[in-house]
């Protein structure tokens, strides 16, 4: 244990495992430790089902009607991967895809006035959608055509818009779009959690909608992917990548102290011994005096014996309830997966509802989503504090990840990873450089 490492990583959440894998590929000597006996930390998939009942302090055992406990792999934090998004790029570049198998999520839906509708994301779907009236469909179609051809470096495609100064609200006004259309464009296509983006320059929003469309174009049914056997497979995949490039893993290891000298991290003490390091990455739970609470998320895992109504009996889907539809400041999300993804017993479905907490009665806040899922056989309710680091970590060389937010995709997680990488390495994260590094070391995975 009395060894010196370039980097020690505490916690095996997805953020920590991806950074551990990347830094190992970049040639750093990495030690990865976790107090838990399993991978994934807060982003783990729980198996067997009995462990989920224990984790949520539910009395008794799962009923026989829920099948074998080992058939279940239930995510604690629900998220999907954007098919053309940052995490898929990282998986492909690092070849972690060799350890994983994905399925396309079958549908993406949006909530309007108590009902759900398929999200129209192509010109032809827009014209066929019952979400909008005839005139609105035409205006929405024009917006989609504008965004499809939009290129910030080609003035001809901008139609007089300055993408770094014109607000997104001004773009909606340009196409005369009503509030319901604005709701689903901003929240179900651009995937914003609030309406703060309306008064920001439109460039980011247009890029987000282009990402949605590019992701949808890859597979057709929806822009989202999901790994068989649950999201817990993702941190394990990156842990294997780290190990291939010399990373050392120690699960079930007590962390007694983060050792500092002159305000800088110099090591981690465990069972009386110190492993020395130059840099440290950890999740907020390992160093609570260097993080601040930035909110709370409620998540409710629901086990059902039926698909969600009005989703064409999809085995998997996402539903977004825009905040304006339920008089809130934040959207409500529903992720549903099923036995088709090897995460539930045959004929069973797992829907997870999540949102930012706004009142003293969080369960009441998600009632519109729970109403869509009835009847529910079993609920598991959690309310988690969200934390963010209080400083950049450049002085102490301790780099702390952010808690996982309520969004149902990994784009915000990837932004956090890239931010930590930049603070650690003093330069932007570059997938091409990572690929070159892997190639120069040689394909050790095949040895």
From TrEMBL:
Topology relative to the membrane: Peripheral membrane protein
The principal localisation class reads cytoplasm
Coiled coil recorded as keyword: no
GO biological process: one example:
small GTPase-mediated signal transduction
Q: Which GO terms describe its molecular function?
A: GTPase activator activity; Rab GDP-dissociation inhibitor activity
Q: Where in the cell is it found?
A: Cytoplasm; Golgi apparatus, trans-Golgi network; Membrane
**Is GTP-binding among this UniProt entry's keywords?**
no
Spell out the GO cellular component terms annotated for this protein, sorted alphabetically and separated by semicolons: Golgi apparatus; membrane
Under InterPro entries, the record lists: FAD/NAD-bd_sf (IPR036188), GDP_dissociation_inhibitor (IPR018203), RabGDI (IPR000806)
- Which of UniProt's keywords are assigned here? Acetylation, Cytoplasm, Golgi apparatus, GTPase activation, Membrane, Phosphoprotein
Which top-rank group of organisms is this from? Eukaryota
**Oligomer and partners:** Interacts with RHOH. Interacts with the GDP-bound inactive forms of RAB3A, RAB3B, RAB3C, RAB5A, RAB5B, RAB5C, RAB8A, RAB8B, RAB10, RAB12, RAB35, and RAB43; binds RAB3D to a lesser extent. Interacts with DZIP1; this interaction negatively regulates the interaction of GDI2 with GDP-bound RAB8A.
Biological function: Regulates the GDP/GTP exchange reaction of most RAB proteins by inhibiting the dissociation of GDP from them, and the subsequent binding of GTP. GDP-dissociation inhibitor preventing the GDP to GTP exchange of most Rab proteins. By keeping these small GTPases in their inactive GDP-bound form regulates intracellular membrane trafficking. Negatively regulates protein transport to the cilium and ciliogenesis through the inhibition of RAB8A.
Q: Which family does it belong to?
A: Belongs to the Rab GDI family.
Entries under PANTHER family matching the protein: RAB GDP DISSOCIATION INHIBITOR BETA (PTHR11787:SF1), RAB GDP-DISSOCIATION INHIBITOR (PTHR11787)
Name this polypeptide is given: Rab GDP dissociation inhibitor
